[in-house]
Design a protein that fits this description.
The chain is an alpha/beta fold. It has a single domain, classed as Vaccinia Virus protein VP39 (Rossmann fold). The strands form 2 sheets. The chain has a 7-stranded mixed sheet with strand order 3-2-1-4-5-9-6, with helices on both faces. Helix 4 links the parallel strand 2 and strand 3. Helix 9 packs across helix 11. The longest helix is centred in the C-terminal third of the chain and has 19 residues. It is globular and about 50 Å long. It starts with 15 loop residues before the first helix and ends with a strand. Bound molecules: benzoic acid. The site of benzoic acid has 8 residues, from loops.
């Protein structure tokens, strides 16, 4: 999950237990990305932004030797609680020692890279971490992802006299933007897709906002956060709520496979 470092935007904070309860859909969708990775037994794989370790565990079940990496301590803890190896680090500052011992066969990432806006640092760190011939297979939010949610969150802060856009922690690039950064780092980009994936959110809009909108909430005093979220949820409800009350958000995915020559 989220990045740290010198980024001036307020940091998103995570609650691994709440994430496990409300956000199982994130890993459910990530299984298609695992198929792109095509793990071979015995491969050394780094799961970048491993979250609570759901997909890290699936990589291990497919025979890989896995290391989960996440910027958030509670997510690292949750991954370790599954008996998996995990360490706390930002994807924008991957530790040099990860490239020791010949490097990883693959770096995998699902729904995490959009929390790491310095994509050049991410690409350089992943490149360094891989062995020659190693692959970087990932999916993230792409251009236009959760556009309606993003606007409602920003507008709600702007109405309060704050700079909503400055609180926005997300990086949702186009194919051209991300692919050229990967190439600049030295990768050969074998495939890169951008596609809409409307995503049902069983826990509801309010729970989604409480989990993922922490950087926006951080600009407000505690007692103004609830009313702000109510207002944002009311703004969004007409566009994302079906007559039966179920909620679907306007996700757009950027998925790629790149190889270190
Ligand atoms: C995503 O997976 O696209 C996403 C999740 C939370 C906030 C923003 C984007």
């Amino acid at each position: 999950m989220g990045a740290g470092g010198a980024d001036p935007r307020p940091a998103q904070s995570w609650d691994a237990a709440r994430y496990a309860r409300d956000c199982g859909f994130v890993a459910d969708h990530g299984r298609a990305v695992l198929d792109w990775l095509d793990v071979q037994a015995g491969e050394r794989i780094l799961d970048l932004g491993c979250g609570d370790g759901t997909l890290t565990a699936e990589l291990a079940a497919r025979g890989a030797q896995v290391l989960g990496v996440d910027a958030d301590a509670s997510m690292v803890e949750a991954t370790r609680a599954r008996g998996l190896e995990a360490r706390q680090a930002s994807g924008e500052a991957l530790p040099l020692e990860l490239s020791y011992n010949g490097g990883f066969d693959a770096v995998f990432s699902n729904a995490a890279l959009h929390w790491m806006p310095d994509a050049d640092l991410v690409a350089a760190g992943v490149y360094r971490t891989l062995r020659p011939g190693g692959r970087f297979v990932a999916e993230m939010g792409g251009q236009g992802n959760v556009e309606a949610v993003r606007h409602a969150l920003i507008d709600g802060l702007d109405r309060r006299g704050l700079d909503g856009a400055a609180a926005d922690p997300w990086f949702f690039p186009s194919i051209g933007d991300y692919a050229s950064r990967l190439e600049q780092a030295g990768f050969r980009v074998e495939a890169c897709l951008l596609f809409p994936r409307p995503t049902p959110v069983a826990a509801g809009l309010r729970a989604w906002l409480e989990t993922f909108a922490g950087s926006f909430l951080a600009l407000l005093p505690e007692d103004e956060r609830g009313p702000y979220l109510d207002e944002v949820a009311a703004d969004l409800a007409p566009t994302c709520t079906a007559p039966d009350g179920s909620v679907t958000l306007d996700y757009v995915r950027l998925r790629f496979r790149a190889v270190k020559p």
